Input
Amino acid sequence: MANLSPQDQAFVHAYSKLLVEAWTDPSFKNLLESNPTAVAKNVGLNPGKGTVTIEPGSGAPDVSAQIAAWKEGATTGKYILYVPSQPQLGVQSSGDTVGDTSYCCCCCPCCTCT
Output
């Protein structure tokens, strides 16, 4: 995801904030599910006069796909936000617990620690 435009960088920052808040605050997640357009505006994602819908998923967020979907919304007026399930730190995909459960921010699409 190198060489993002300043506009895309601002989008990724706001989208990341939305994901982290949805993953850590149940009341925010409920509000996001009930009124995604208003919540998107509140975190800095401006759909203009368009509408925002949430598309739940699993796995890591695909930021490139999310940027493309948001840009498509500028044409159609229908913006999609992909909100994957909260990442589970310290758990492998097989469900086995791994030895190192230290925090790493790599689950966030704006991560710069790698």
Observations:
- Confidence is low (pLDDT under 50) at residues 97-104.
- Helices lie at 6-24, 26-34, 36-42, 63-76.
- The chain has four helices and two strands.
- The two ends are 12 Å apart (CA to CA).
